[in-house]
Amino acid sequence: MSNHVSQWLRMGGVWLLGVLAILYSFYPATAQATGSDFNIQVAPSPLTITLTPGQMQSTSLVVRNFSSHDETLRPSLSGFRIDSVSQKITLLSAPPANMANWVHFKQSDLTLAPGTGKNLDIIFDTPKDVGFSYAAAITLTRANTVARADATNLRGAVAVFCLANINRPDAKSAVAITSLSSDKSSYEFLPATFHLSLKNTGNVISQPTGTIFIQRSFSDATPIASLPINSTGGYVLPDTTRSFSSSWQNGFPAYVANPALSGQSATNHLNWNWSHLSQLRFGRYVAKAVIIYNDGHSDVPVIASTSFWVIPWRLIGFGLLLLIVLGTGLYAWGRFAFKSVQKVQRRGHK
Predict the structure, then answer these.
(1) Which CATH class is domain 14-166?
(2) Mean pLDDT over residues 133-158, rounded?
């Protein structure tokens, strides 16, 4: 596996690989594996570090045992592969780009009593001739297998991703918006859903964030609504593209999801919350995406926009029908009043 994987890191998930249970976490928080009384938490997750060629550096993971018994864990470094269709992540036995030659663990194993934690120290003896970025998995595997009642063995493990940028003068951090669209060109009622694709066009790992502003025009100073993008702080690897979705839901009326029943698909219903009457939407709107990434010197904005319409045709139809009914009634009343006046005038002339 090269030091660049073919897809964005996918946020969170648990897969069973044979009898090996591994938890992959990509949120910048903690990774935790549970099951069969195997409850291990590792932080931070993912582990991010900037390395300098030719220098030795170290960092630590905090490993906590929330199981009810002692756990002995053995650290190892692995590569990983991401399926381009299913996005399923599979560990590989070999680390990428010979990282095993210059990444080492100070502790060969960690023994943790219930409710305790220890540091796992990782040493990076970075050679001078390295690339720009590396992505690997640090796996803590239970030293012994656990027999199960069904006569199979379960060997628990928890894995966190190690994302390393190399501090080289020719390193380049750059992110581009490859597409921004709404799932429809026009809506009767909200929500309106937007899809944004970002590509890391640089050679180092990036962490872009941003906002989609809903406005009447591109240059409006005050947006109607603000929708966060990548608020969880996910990372993107070089030469990869990731899509984000966000929905504008503040409207009157608006479709809301019904609670999904077992064995049934989710459905929506139109919610008439009259306290939101001021949020009646009608006309053309602009969704303006402003994405921010750091190029190593300052924050750089990237901007794209798309337009869409909100046309509540049923409300418009009802309003037109009401006007027609009122107009017809006023016309009929006017004719009746006019004829009544004429009759009175004719009687007066007699």
Answers:
(1) mainly beta
(2) 75
